[in-house]
Model the fold of this input.
Amino acid sequence: MLERLGLMPTQASTVSGDVDALYLSLVGLSLVFSLGIAAALAYFAIAYRRRSEAHEAEQIHGSLALELVWSIIPFTIAMGIFIWGASLFVTLKRPPDNALEIFAVGKQWMWKLQHLEGRREINALHIPVGRPVKVTLTSEDVIHSFFVPAFRVKQDAVPGRYSTVWFEATKTGSFHLFCAEYCGTEHSGMIGTVTVMEPDDYQDWLSAEMAGGMAGTAQGDDPLSVAAAGGELFRGLGCHTCHRQTAGALGPSLTELFGSQVSLRGGRTVLADEAYLRESIVDPRAKLVDGYQPVMPTFQGQVSEEGLMQLVAYIKSLAAEQDS
Amino acid sequence: MTAHAPTADAHAHAEHHDLGFVRTYLFSTDHKMIGRQFLFMSLFMMIIGGGLALMIRWQLAWPETQIPLTRWIPEPMMYDGFMPPEFYNAAVTMHATIMVFFVVMPLLVGCFGNFLIPLMIGAGDMAFPLLNMLSFWVSVPAGIMMVGSFWVEGGAAAAGWTGYAPLSTVPEYTGVGMGQNLWALSLIVLGASSLMGAVNYITTIINMRAPGMTWFRMPLVVWSLFITAILLLLALPVLTAGLGLMLFDRMAGTSFFLPAGGGEPLLWQHIFWFFGHPEVYIMILPAMGIASEIMPVFARKPIFGYHAMVFSIISIAFLSWIVWGHHMFQSGMNFTLGTSFMITTMVIAVPSAIKTFNWLGTLWGGNIHFKVPMLWALGFISTFVVGGLSGIYMANTPIDIFIHDTYFIVAHIHYVLFGGSIFAMFGAVTFWFPKMFGRMMNPTMGQIHFWGTFIFYNIGFFPMHIIGVGGHMRRIYNPTQYEFLEPMQWWNVFITRGVLIMGAFQLVFAINLFYSLYFGKKADRNPWQSNTLEWECPSPPGHGNFETPVTVHRGPYEYSSPEVEEDFLPQTRDLSGATGGSH
Ligand SMILES: [Cu+2]
Ligand SMILES: [Cu+2]
Done:
């Protein structure tokens, strides 16, 4: 019944309750204001309608006190809403550290998703319940937007950039995954599903062989983890010829790179995050590492966005190995 | 200053014979004729934009069925009345582009800006009449290019009216070639037209006010058009630059917006919305001005808080430059930037609230006549309140993340631009029609048109908020493709029925317009007993506007003043001498 009325979709993530609470307070506030204004309008329209030719309107030019009242009250309310909204925004923006990582690439007109362990899906995403999930998004062509109404999250996938969105499902079941940003002719058909499973089921699903074949995972299953696939690419593309740990290597060692501060030519430093790694591969000259020659060729166009994500995951895994 | 107004041209029609048909009706340099030209051009474009809207609504309610009255549209646009996704996307893009750039802007700014500014400040014409004529005639090829693009190979632009790169910059992504180029070119040309208008308005208002017309005696609609012209002057070049880069990317192989060549797709969004948010106020400030003009006349009461009104117009204009990021909250904006844009956007709601309360204050203690223009002004306020309040949801990042790109946004923009700008435009047409054409519009048809539009407008558009929050996305070709939207489909049917009926009521307006043009009751100079200067001239005013130079003695809203017997006190009336009154 409620669904037919089109009220908010089911709440299925840790933030959806908070978002809805803020939303409903705004609805309450709007009702107070709009009904108040409507009532005043109706009252004035009736009380001060023209009754006779002789009647004259009152001489009221304004009132400073009233102007102040109706400036300060809306301003205070606006600031209150701002503080509430901003504090919720912090939560939405900051993925927890222990989040499960998923890589997603938008493409006209599908979502291609990849689990860290290597399992790939198209227009379908399987995740465990009760565990934060962080999706790193990019696009191969135009802008798409990753939208799961039940989780109250939406994030654009912009070509040439990484953006992230995180959520923690609170319910098992299947939920809708859409592309919210208009992306061309078949935009309307870019539809997917998020399946939330019990953690054990998720583990089984992850390790399941593709023998039976699952709907939505048309691509042959890749037995390699994302990082391992990245390692294959790293060797296949000849990255290792320059990025060696031996003396006299043309390129810097990448083993401790991720998460460190890199000093660049010209004295600046930059945090080596995913976006930096991606940029170093597709546009090496954009930020040159101090002490090295600009000899690295660009790999723009030679590696797909998914391949880039794998390379990035590989380089990240090197740093993680160092840590442990 | 008004020495310009030649007294010899007293007779409205004398000049017409002198100049001949071409100089009078086509290449006229008279601001009133240019205003009328903009009026008819935009009403014509409104038929196209509205037709597209009805087709879109039909497709959403009854997807992939034959749309009535469209079988004449040739392939590959429509297939015997069936709409393919390519045309749906083009229709969505073109409906918005036409309505924003060829209907609302030319109506409020082109038509009423032109017609009202010289008349209301007591000038004989615009400062640069020739430039003014050029401004209209440059907008004509722009319109032809825009509408003509439907017929070129690949069809009309289909990247959305926001033209997000790289969808809009790489032909393969939409399959649209020439159409998108024409879209950009047309908007560049139209931008030139608006710039010419803006320069003219600013110069005219600064330099050509009649003696005694101080800044704070100016009618609020003139204030709002003045501020709008400044916004136009500063915002349009930004859009033009962006469109230029888009054309370079498309035609010269550059990659300003293409990551593969080192470009940045988000740069387009920054450029577009840096123009786009002031643009929103370009379309609403004149509407607010119009409402502020109509309300005191029919409440027979001074406007409440004139100075507060002026200052809120100015602060809205100022703030409109620093809120554009609220359109990009989910493009990957970081926390600091996100909250900065959130706070500025929350603040901009305040001056709009101030204006609303001042309008209410204007009614308080009035002697209200519910004539057709007043109904539109009150309708404007009611819908504007809804549109303003729904803006708060979008300013609020966590909520915006959820409702962005849903029908909630569609509802918001239509409450602001249809319930806001277009309602005000209907108010303005019915209010100034006697001055523009010398005849009264038929009030019965006016009432029918108002009530039909107002009621079915709300029936059609209000539910869009509801389905938007339900998760219904905008710009989707076929909602029945979504299992998720299945329970809500009846809303789509409901909305479409409402909008179709509202569309039918527009015929009443069209009939009233043409009927009254020829058979309306002859209007005298001041049929509404209004104070402002335009009502001192004959209806319609002749060349040069004022028969004798006017001097202004007071503000524009002295209604029911105890100083005089009547309940209005024209700005020109001199009460100091023994003989008062200018006529
Ligand atoms: Cu899409
Ligand atoms: Cu905006």
Q: What stands out?
A: The domain at 226-323 of chain A is CATH 1.10.760.10 (Cytochrome Bc1 Complex; Chain D, domain 2). The two ends of chain A are 53 Å apart (CA to CA). Confidence is low (pLDDT under 50) at residues 210-222 of chain A. The pocket of copper (II) ion (ligand 2) is lined by residues B 277, 280, 323, 326-327 (CB under 6 Å).
